[in-house]
Amino acid sequence: MLLALAYPWLAHWAAGGSDLAASLALADLVLIVLVEGLLCRRLRAWLALAAALAMLAALHGTVWPRVLLLAPPMLFTGLVAWFFARSLADPRGALITRIVAALDRCEPAALPPRLHRYTRRLTAAWAGVMTLLCVVNGLLALIAVPDGALALLGTRAPLTVSREQWSLFANLLNYGLVGLFFVGEYALRRRWFPARPYRNFLEFMRMMGRLGPEFWRGLFTRP
């Protein structure tokens, strides 16, 4: 969690031109991906970490670490959008439908019809929001100067944004918009479905956490 919280600030710091911050942000991403294997002392995880750090050391001082940081905001939002959208065709139920059913301790099919429809539509709404953010992140990465994708290819875009403006959206506002949608939807849900098994937002988050790592891992795997 601390690694995930640190990444947006390191990436935004790197947008100011800091080579050190760019390398640290990429190293932070590597640790986020490998942390479970590292804690379990898996040899391949430690070898992957060593290889990644060696590559970052070789690239330090070049433009490439900052160029590589253009990709994660688009890849992250695109991957999340894909998980939400893919679950709409899952015979076990849409992603949020399964989460709500787990909180209610029942099968997705046993949810009240109105709540079942709402959770399915909410899953589709999350897929749409994350797809929109993915597209916006991709467009901004294309037109950022001086080291956006088009600028590096020697093409001048008709409309450009500074690296700092791209970073402000991709590394900070991105997550703020996601959080705002999450909190806003919670408030709407409390109004439309007042009889829920939690009394407030804090209790809701605690119940989400108590579902456990096995549930969350299974949620994103194919049947």
TrEMBL record:
Segments crossing the lipid bilayer: 20-39, 46-64, 70-89, 124-146, 166-188
Key words, A-Z: Membrane, Transmembrane, Transmembrane helix
Protein name, per record: Ketosynthase
UniProt source species: Marilutibacter alkalisoli
UniProt lineage: Bacteria, Pseudomonadati, Pseudomonadota, Gammaproteobacteria, Lysobacterales
